[in-house]
Specification:
By secondary structure, this protein is an alpha+beta fold. It contains 5 helices and 11 strands; from the N terminus they run H-E-E-H-E-E-E-E-E-H-H-H-E-E-E-E. The chain starts with a helix and ends with a strand. It comes from Drosophila simulans (Fruit fly).
Length: 196
């Protein structure tokens, strides 16, 4: 009997599930609660004054331009990391979901990357951004209007319940691979709602 229950649990928990993310903060991006020392938030690194975001259900309508003001050097290598956390009994605990790249600039327009699927493919001045990436001040990120669905589709894994957050960290490393003192750290907090 126990074997049948375990088998049934294993089968049902492996089925793909769709989730909608209910945002906790209407501004979408929150400062990191436990960011690295010296880290700056997205509003300190990127001027978002010309970005317009309207939420309609599980869709964010995004349009406008952003200007990178992050103070790093044109020769720096940019690393990126995304981690998914679950809030449990007063603490943010890591989950098994994460992704990282040691050279974000080299993959930001790779069609197989999530960065591209959800964001960089909508940057219209690709040639300028590919050359500059986020290095050096005043890099313009010109976006065509796009819709971003707050959905995790075909999610395979344990059921998602309660508060979660996505933590994104960008680091700049100099020519000797020494990190600059001002990494960008941002969080997107919300609660995944299981869709039927």
């Amino acid at each position: 009997m126990i074997f049948v229950l375990l088998l049934l649990f294993g089968v049902t928990s492996s089925w793909a599930t769709d989730y909608e993310l209910l945002l906790e903060d209407p501004d979408i991006f929150s400062p990191c609660t436990e960011g690295p020392p010296g880290s700056i938030n997205i509003h300190q690194a990127v001027n978002l004054d010309d970005i317009v975001v309207d939420q309609e259900g599980d869709i964010l309508h995004v349009s406008g331009n952003a200007t990178v003001v992050w103070d790093v050097q044109p020769t720096d290598r940019i690393t990126a990391r995304l981690d998914f956390f679950h809030f449990n009994r007063g603490n943010w605990e890591p989950t098994v979901f994460s992704m990282a790249t040691q050279n974000f600039c080299s993959i930001m327009y790779d069609k197989n990357q999530y960065w591209y699927k959800y964001w960089t493919r909508f940057i219209t001045n690709r040639h300028e951004v590919e050359k500059k990436c986020f290095r050096g001040p005043d890099t313009l990120l010109a976006h065509e209007p796009f819709d971003l669905r707050l959905k995790f589709e075909n999610f395979r894994g344990p059921l998602l319940r309660g508060r979660h957050k996505i933590v994104v960290l960008f680091n700049a490393l100099d020519e000797r691979n020494i990190p600059r003192p001002n990494p960008i750290c941002l969080e997107i907090r919300g609660e995944p709602l299981k869709l039927h």
